[in-house]
Specification:
single chain, two-stranded antiparallel sheet
């Protein structure tokens, strides 16, 4: 039972890593419409991983151990195989954290870029002067174009 849970968790963590790599690709290529559906999958996978972890802790606690690793070392059968799975899971968790931080940094940079572009455009539009004409919401021109006719 413990081995099956760890194998499921390793598979889920690999899938999570793949999803995060795909999310980074979407962010980098600005395919924002695809990110939201991918985020739903990522959140669902994270929830499932958390449930699996809680169940492992519960099994270890019921056996009289406060940590999963203590419990795994206590089990004489399959000890090496379980420890290998735990190490693989730990390495995948590390990679997932790095990918998640990278995705977060890129998403924040894109958000800042969008805000800065919006601020710039808003400032340019709201400038008043002879060379900047403003149209009302009905299409009426406020101000007159400055025409220079060269002869």
């Amino acid at each position: 039972m413990m081995k099956e849970k760890l194998v499921r968790m390793v598979k889920a963590m690999n899938m999570l890593k793949d999803f995060l790599e795909e999310e980074f690709s979407y962010l980098k290529n600005r395919k924002l419409d695809k990110i939201s559906s991918l985020e739903v999958c990522i959140q669902s996978l994270l929830e499932q991983l958390e449930v699996e972890k809680k169940e492992l802790r519960k099994i270890a606690y019921q056996a009289g151990h406060t940590k999963i690793n203590e419990f795994l070392n206590f089990i004489s059968t399959e000890r090496e195989e379980l420890n290998t799975l735990v190490k693989e899971l730990s390495e995948l968790e590390r990679k997932v954290k790095i990918l998640s931080a990278k995705n977060n940094a890129l998403a924040m940079a894109l958000a800042r870029q969008a805000v800065n572009m919006f601020s710039f455009l808003q400032a340019e539009i709201s400038k008043k002067g002879e060379d900047n004409f403003i149209y009302t919401n009905t299409g009426k021109l406020l101000g007159r174009p400055r025409l220079s006719v060269r002869g």
